[in-house]
Amino acid sequence: MIAVGTATSTTGPVISLVGAARVYDLGHVQVAALVDATFAVERGEFVAILGPSGSGKSTLLNIIGCLDRPTAGQYLLTGTSVAELDDDDLARLRSRTIGFVFQSYNLLPRTSALENVATPLLYQGVGRRERHERAVAALERLGLGDRLTHEPSELSGGQQQRVALARALVTDPAVILADEPTGNLDSASGAEVIALLRELHGAGRTLVLVTHDPDVADHADRLVHVRDGRVAA
Ligand SMILES: Nc1ncnc2c1ncn2[C@@H]1O[C@H](COP(=O)(O)OP(=O)(O)OP(=O)(O)O)[C@@H](O)[C@H]1O
Ligand SMILES: [Mg+2]
Q1: Which residue has a Cα nearest atom 27 of ligand 1?
Q2: For residue 95, what are the CA distances in angstroms to 17, 43, 121, 156, 198?
Q3: All domains in the chain, ordered by first residue
Q4: How do strand 72-77 and strand 15-25 relate by DSSP bridges?
């Protein structure tokens, strides 16, 4: 059932920022991490966000992923203004629309790869057996079929990154957001992840990736540059 206020639109851009800003208020100092950002992503587009360290890329992706809200301006996700949703409705919209890969993975510690990947399905009310099957399939797809019971501390950095990717993909989201998805991978694993992302793009998913990796950026439909908190499409 779709709650009032979270109805989604199937026309128009899937992501639309209008004059969006994010100021971090540290009391003694204010950091303008994102300044007057206006940009849209159409359904099915593959966009790569590029920019120097500290320019505001993760801040922008966190807003797009509804992990944070703009301090000024507007953000519309599938036509819904996130400012008008309470935290529960926003979490619901996020859960059924977005798969998110964090720059630092954010896996649950002391929890197996399998349980980490299955957790988003639990929030969607998927039954135990199906959760298990889908989580196994997602991990196998990322080449981790032999690491199901390993906890994050028992996995390499690149393996943790692939668990984070599997967790983002297990719900088959329309929008995939990833912060440096190949940042910690060797070239062979990186090439596999790029092939997977291209396959998802080919299947109509919308992709927005922060990346320093020219091999990832090469496959994007469009590059968006961020510098000093400003977005230049
Ligand atoms: N929670 C926070 N509180 C205060 N300032 C922050 C916070 N998060 C980020 N910043 C500041 O906002 C600016 C943008 O940070 P952000 O993490 O978006 O950069 P980035 O482009 O993702 O960098 P990197 O490529 O190093 O990951 C930086 O100057 C950073 O110091
Ligand atoms: Mg970052």
Answers
A1: 53
A2: 20, 18, 9, 27, 22
A3: 15-232 (3.40.50.300)
A4: antiparallel
CB-CB contact of 5 with 78 (8 Å): no
Rounded to the nearest angstrom, the distance between the alpha carbon of 14 and the centre of ligand 1 is 25
> How many angstroms is it from 50 CA to the middle of ligand 1?
14
Q: Check pLDDT > 70 for residue 68.
A: yes
Assess whether pLDDT exceeds 70 at residue 7.
no
- Nearest ligand to the C-alpha of residue 34? 1
The answer to whether the beta carbons of residues 117 and 139 sit under 8 Å apart is yes
Q: Return the SS3 of 116.
A: helix
CA 60–ligand 1 middle distance (angstroms): 10
CB-based contact 142:163 (threshold 8 Å): yes
Contacts of 8 (CB under 8 A, 6+ apart): 2, 78, 79, 80, 93, 97
pLDDT digits (tens, 9 = 90+) for 131-184: 999 999 999 999 999 999 999 999 999 999 999 999 999 999 999 999 999 998
Residue whose CB lies within 8 A of the most ligand 1 atoms, among 22, 30, 59, for a mutation test: 59
Residue nearest to atom 26 of ligand 1 (CA): 53
